[in-house]
Design the sequence.
């Protein structure tokens, strides 16, 4: 290749690269425009408002420690949504076993379970994203007596509430039965509020 | 049961749809009129005019390689600049700072080589500008470069005494214009409708029910995630790939993204047959891929459904290994994603690799070390498989005493040396770097887990870098000097030893004449040849890694069942 040819190819190289850069800016803006006009709720992150205040996202789990709320899964990042992540501990990790032993003990004592009771796996093992918004139905029902007691609500009412919040398989096919903890707790606040009035 | 059937159905339907789409791809790269021509041909001509491309001139393989390398180099420099300057560039609503140099080098090279070794956390470390001008630009370029390389190789089999292999600029423009843009525009909206975010808002401040504050991330996520899936690069927008609720919000997305991952690679296999004018090649490639795909299935299912006996002892119901897994997906869906996400070197995953069972990670490593020929990374996967074909033909030729030939072309010393070298390079780069780093103190310091699991972490990291898979076990501290600087050579060696060798072989194939099919020809689509290729895959690649696998995942599995922890 002579010098002129190399120069010509270099020019093509830069110009074509520039076009790809333009495309990479135009494409997201175009899709954002269409998405925000046709599906604003999803495009903005499925946000949940209570009395006009932003309380979180339907898809992002939240930290609950108070006995008066249903608790979500353990999170390696403490439900910090701007820094998601799992524990990355392997199946033979001693650290993981210590954590799980602690969590099992805590779940048993918080919910008044016998010392040899088994606990659902999702309630003591950290999620992959650290932001898992769901727990299993079993994990929710296990917390009903504690929550009812802390709220001064009849256990039956809380149990009915949980039952209403069990999400079935999507289209009857995909995923598994689960409970969205944030939505359940918002409903729980409403229930307790209406009782107080 | 319905769920299993649905997953089976989506894979079968995707593979069937790959045929018409593969024919479309072949037309695109032959420059024949196709469905999109009326719409895109004027734009294509405009691009050629603006960039000074003569669409009718062709390049020799050497010029093709030089052009490709030059273009990739520009990509690395540009990505490095974007990362080093992102702190001062616009569209940075959450105020991230610029990358340290070693980190920027690593990320830039990983994007350009289609490895997408994400040594950062997308929502924490990248601005919207870097996501677009860094990740998205290379989401267009790197798979297109892989694409044109496999196009060149396939096309060369149908050429006779031809000194040239094609025009890089033309092939490249067509890949972006006719493949990635239309697919991206159509397939992105189902994702958004399920809840994948797509906005330019600053992170939303939520006041949690218990009175805390939570920052809800945003950004142009869907437009990046769509290419992460269809381009097999796995450049996840958020830190933990498809586990993040904003990347994979519902079980439905989990299901239909299976099709996204498999669709283009499967279509490429069909395209190869059309371009090489050899239907048998498509048959043979598909058969080998399917055989390998079925072979890797059982082990992860066995391992994950078995549960972890150590957890069961602590009082966890059934010892179910929910660590690093999400509640909205069933165990079956997690395992399907492990297999379908990792087999084509996509690297998207729902389960955290560091927390899956040892035998699952063994399967993942196996899928990666064989060069990801199961549908495969765009370009590199099928190319690796064609290299296996060449080696198999050579071995078969030695055994029967005939001159080996492939798709009507004589396979000679040069091709065999090149194909063999391509495997040696990638095995060498992954095993040697693992060995060097694991014995150093700095290497031991970055491990996230102890015992055999730590060795697996290191082995997987360098193997995945060498095969351009790009996922790693998250416990490894990847943003450290040693990992940032040791992985880029592996990525470069792994990618270009496959791609450039492929183009070099294309150069010599195009120059050769075609030999007529005779009784002495070993047909590639015969069961005998397919079985032989599968054996060669095992012997050449898997056996290289067997010794280290025994003291990594296999040892960990044995120790786990006997109750040891580290």
Sequence:
């Amino acid at each position: 290749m002579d010098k002129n040819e190399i120069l010509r190819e270099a020019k093509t190289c830069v110009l074509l690269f520039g076009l790809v850069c333009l495309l990479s800016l135009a494409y997201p803006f175009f899709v954002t425009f269409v998405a925000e006009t046709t599906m604003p709720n999803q495009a903005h992150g499925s946000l949940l408002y209570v009395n006009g205040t932003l309380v979180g996202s339907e898809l992002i789990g939240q930290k609950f420690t108070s006995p008066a709320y249903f608790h979500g899964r353990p999170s390696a990042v403490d439900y910090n949504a701007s820094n998601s992540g799992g524990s990355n501990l392997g199946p033979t990790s001693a650290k993981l076993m210590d954590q799980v032993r602690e969590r099992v003990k805590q779940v048993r004592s918080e919910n008044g379970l016998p010392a040899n009771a088994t606990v659902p796996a999702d309630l003591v093992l950290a999620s992959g994203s650290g932001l898992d918004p769901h727990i299993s139905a079993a994990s929710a029902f296990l917390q009903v007596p504690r929550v009812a007691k802390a709220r001064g609500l009849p256990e039956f009412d809380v149990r009915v509430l949980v039952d209403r919040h069990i999400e079935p398989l999507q289209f009857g096919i995909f995923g598994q039965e689960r409970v969205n903890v944030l939505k359940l707790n918002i409903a729980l606040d409403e229930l307790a509020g209406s009782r107080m009035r | 049961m319905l769920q299993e059937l649905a997953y089976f159905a989506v894979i079968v339907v995707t593979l069937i749809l790959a045929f018409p789409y593969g024919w479309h791809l072949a037309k695109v790269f032959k420059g024949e009129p196709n469905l999109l021509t009326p719409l895109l041909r004027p734009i294509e001509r405009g691009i050629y005019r603006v960039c000074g491309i003569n669409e009718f001139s062709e390049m020799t393989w050497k010029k093709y390689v030089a052009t490709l390398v030059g273009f990739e180099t520009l990509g690395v420099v540009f990505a490095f600049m974007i990362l080093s300057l992102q702190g001062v560039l616009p569209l940075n609503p959450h105020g991230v700072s610029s990358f340290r140099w070693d980190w920027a080098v690593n990320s830039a090279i990983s994007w350009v080589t289609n490895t997408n070794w994400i040594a950062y956390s997308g929502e924490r470390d990248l601005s919207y500008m870097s996501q677009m001008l860094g990740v998205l630009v290379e989401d267009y370029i790197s798979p297109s470069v892989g694409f044109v390389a496999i196009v060149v190789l396939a096309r060369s089999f149908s050429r006779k005494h031809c000194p040239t292999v094609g025009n890089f600029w033309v092939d490249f423009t067509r890949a972006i214009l006719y493949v990635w843009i239309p697919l991206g525009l159509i397939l992105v909206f189902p994702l958004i409708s399920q809840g994948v975010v797509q906005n330019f808002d600053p992170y939303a401040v939520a006041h949690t029910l218990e009175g805390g504050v939570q920052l809800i991330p945003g950004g142009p996520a869907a437009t990046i995630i769509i290419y992460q899936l269809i381009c097999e690069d796995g450049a996840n927008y958020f830190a933990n790939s498809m586990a993040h609720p904003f990347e994979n919000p519902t079980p439905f997305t989990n299901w239909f993204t299976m099709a996204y991952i498999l669709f283009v690679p499967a279509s490429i296999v069909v395209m190869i047959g059309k371009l090489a004018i050899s239907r048998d090649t498509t048959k043979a490639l598909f058969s080998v891929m399917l055989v390998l795909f079925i072979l890797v299935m059982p082990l992860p299912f066995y391992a994950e459904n078995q549960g972890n006996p150590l957890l069961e002892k602590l009082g966890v119901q059934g010892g179910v290994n929910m660590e690093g897994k999400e509640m909205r997906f069933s165990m079956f869906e997690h395992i399907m994603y492990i297999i379908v996400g990792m087999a084509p070197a996509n690297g998207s995953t729902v389960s955290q690799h560091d927390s899956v069972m040892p035998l699952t990670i063994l399967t993942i490593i196996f899928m990666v070390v064989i060069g990801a020929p199961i549908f495969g990374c765009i370009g590199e996967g099928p190319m690796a498989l064609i290299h296996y074909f060449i080696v198999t033909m050579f071995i078969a030729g030695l055994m029967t005493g005939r001159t080996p030939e492939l798709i009507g072309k004589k396979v000679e010393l040069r091709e065999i040396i090149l194909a063999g070298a391509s495997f040696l390079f990638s095995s060498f780069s992954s095993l040697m770097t693992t060995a060097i780093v694991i014995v150093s103190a700095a290497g031991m310091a970055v491990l996230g887990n102890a015992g055999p699991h730590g060795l697996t972490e290191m082995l997987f990291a360098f193997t995945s870098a060498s095969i351009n898979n790009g996922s790693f076990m998250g416990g490894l501290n990847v943003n450290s000097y040693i990992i940032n600087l040791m992985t880029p050579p592996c990525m470069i060696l792994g990618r270009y030893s496959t791609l450039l060798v492929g183009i070099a072989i294309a150069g010599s194939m195009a120059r050769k004449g075609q030999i007529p099919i005779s009784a002495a020809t070993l047909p590639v689509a015969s069961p005998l040849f397919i079985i032989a290729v599968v054996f060669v895959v095992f012997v050449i690649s898997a056996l290289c890694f067997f010794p280290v696998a025994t003291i990594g995942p296999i040892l960990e599995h044995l120790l786990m069942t006997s109750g040891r922890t580290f």
In short: Chain B has 20 helices and four strands. The first helix of chain B runs from residue 2 to 30. Residues 2-283 of chain B form one domain.
